[in-house]
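Below is a filled-in request sheet from our internal design queue. Each sheet records the structural input a requester submitted and the sequence that came back. We keep these sheets so that new team members can see what a complete request looks like end to end.

REQUESTER: design group, bay 2
PRIORITY: normal
MODE: inverse folding
CHAIN LENGTH: 76
BACKBONE (tokenized):
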């Protein structure tokens, strides 16, 4: 398994965090991890929904002040 890829998407608003996460995941192998950091409050809804729709596993989701951090495992 490769080192997790980290995307700093702080400051970007909907729909950019989901679009950029999706693009990154398409270039990854199954089982690889993506760490997404975003400040858009809608990411708390959009990222988990995206993972469910696309079949990826949301490993963790946490909030640190205004930063939302998601760890996503590419599943397919």
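RETURNED SEQUENCE:
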């Amino acid at each position: 398994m490769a080192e997790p890829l980290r995307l700093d998407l702080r400051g970007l608003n909907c729909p950019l965090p989901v679009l950029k996460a999706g693009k990154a995941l398409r270039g990854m192998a199954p089982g690889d991890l993506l760490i997404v950091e975003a400040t858009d409050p809608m990411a708390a809804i959009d990222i988990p929904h995206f993972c469910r729709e696309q079949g990826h596993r949301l490993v963790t989701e946490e909030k640190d002040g205004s930063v939302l951090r998601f760890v996503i495992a590419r599943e397919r």
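SHEET NOTES:
- The two ends are 14 Å apart (CA to CA).
- Strands lie at 5-9, 33-38, 57-64, 67-73.
FILED BY: M.R.
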